[in-house]
Amino acid sequence: MSTTTTTTTTAAAAPPPAAGAPGVRRRRRRSLSPGRRLPAAGLIGPLAVLALWAGASAAGRLDPGAIPAPWTVLRTAGRLWTEGTLATDVVTSLRRAAYGFAIGLTAGVVLALASGLSRVGEALIDGTVQLNRAIPTLGLIPLFILWLGIGETFKIAIIAIVVYIPVYLNTHAALSGIDSRFVELAEVQGLSRLAFVRRIVVPGALPGFFVGLRLGVTGSWLGLVVLEQINATSGLGYMMFQATNYGQSDVILVGLLIYGVFGLVSDSAVRLVERRVLSWRRTLNS
Amino acid sequence: MAPHTEQLTAPAVRLAGLTRSFDGRTVLDGVDLEFPAGQFTALLGHSGSGKSTLLRAVAGLDHEVEGGGELTAPERVSVVFQDSRLLPWRRVLDNVLLGADGKEAAARGRAALAEVGLAGRERAWPSELSGGEAQRAALARSLVREPELLLADEPFGALDALTRIRMHGLLRELWKRHRPAVLLVTHDVDEAIVLADRVLVLENGRIGLDLTIDRPHPRSYRDPLLGEYRERLLAALGVTEDLA
Ligand SMILES: Nc1ncnc2c1ncn2[C@@H]1O[C@H](COP(=O)(O)OP(=O)(O)OP(=O)(O)O)[C@@H](O)[C@H]1O
Ligand SMILES: [Mg+2]
After folding, report:
1. What is the chain A residue with the closest CA to B161?
2. B48 Cβ below 6 A of ligand 1
3. Complex prediction ipTM
4. What is residue B200's three-state secondary structure?
5. ABC transporter domain: from which residue to which, for each copy (chain B) (predicted)?
6. Where are the alpha helices (DSSP H) in B81-223?
7. Which residue of A has its CA nearest to B61?
8. Whole-model pTM?
């Protein structure tokens, strides 16, 4: 109990302080955190690419048949929106993605809870999902067409499967990876099983759930694109596929742009919710 | 499965012939021990002597451990662990109130936080607390339940020496006000002597030494009269004076 610790501080090669001062000035350690975020950091890169594209087009360095100028793309988008079927195509695509995503998310969460909170549930569900995961979902397309026909149901089903797998896997891993010290704490504090699940298991699993959610969002767009480009008679992908036949690169770019906006908006929305819900986490990026 | 009988009335702890073993290796070999309500007891022993095993048995936390014997413990038991074990996703007050429901619970939680010197930190996240503050919050959490028995497994083991001394004062003060029976597991002989009214040494799976420390509180580490107790305890632990 009576140990005396003597600390000798040697300053690292700091420049000698101004004349006369005998003390050693100590430089602050360099922070290993990357530092403060630049304002609007997420926009700088895309804007630079856009500027490059516009500049190259204006200078005539790009083949307009392969990569049309940004303004051509915008004009085409306006024309398609007012005169063509772009509006209905967008709505069709959004509806597919939204239904598929909602079903997949619900299924993923419900299955993860059932298998994460009960041993019977785990025995029934976990192995099955792991098996399902081993089969690339897009490989199921032929079978699903055979079962469900080539209509909307089949597309929604495929998207739902693409979404539920990462949601399930990450949520289940988080639920079953709960710190045993917290289980002990719950017992000591006399929590009921329900209170234990509500106050400890579920909040503890939220970070894992959000990882799954973000993968699920990405997956739903990916599934959408693939499905619409190979087996659709409406929707954005169909529009782009048709444009290929007529060599309309501007229409294809409009489609890609809209897909990009979908992806960006949905990912930002998830991030926003995540930051709110997980505000207790202090990370390098906070 | 270890039996854990609970008696609703008598708030005293009684162990009779308590045994616990892991994979056939006996750790507790028939512990007989009794202590009355409100007594402050410290439990010493070598690392691996089974102190935590004993404490977990009394807390009823050893579901899967082999063993037998008789065990009576009060109904309201609180445990303070070596780590503060605050849930990172609950604010400090909500952590303190974990498992305490009802309308007046929040008021009691605030009062407990004030008692441990954390008034005003109710809305902080656990990650914003220092080690000592987190451990004080854990103490507050254990108090809210108004325990008849407070079990603490090296609760100050992770703290620096200065904070430890402060925490000793705080624990003793809280004990004086609430009067739970306390079983404090520690490997620090001085901590045991300064805090407890009775010190037990766990040795070869049994209570090897049972020493009542008859000195007034608050005690000082430098009290020469405590030296005698220290020597006896160190001898029981197999440490000779020149090694200590
Ligand atoms: N869950 C377990 N599984 C197997 N062996 C265990 C388990 N828990 C404890 N033991 C063994 O029981 C013995 C007593 O452990 P215990 O944790 O009670 O010691 P301790 O007195 O608290 O030691 P320390 O002072 O280091 O905390 C040790 O030899 C340990 O290896
Ligand atoms: Mg221990």
Report:
1. A1
2. yes
3. 0.87
4. strand
5. 13-229
6. 92-96, 105-115, 131-144, 161-178, 189-195
7. A184
8. 0.80
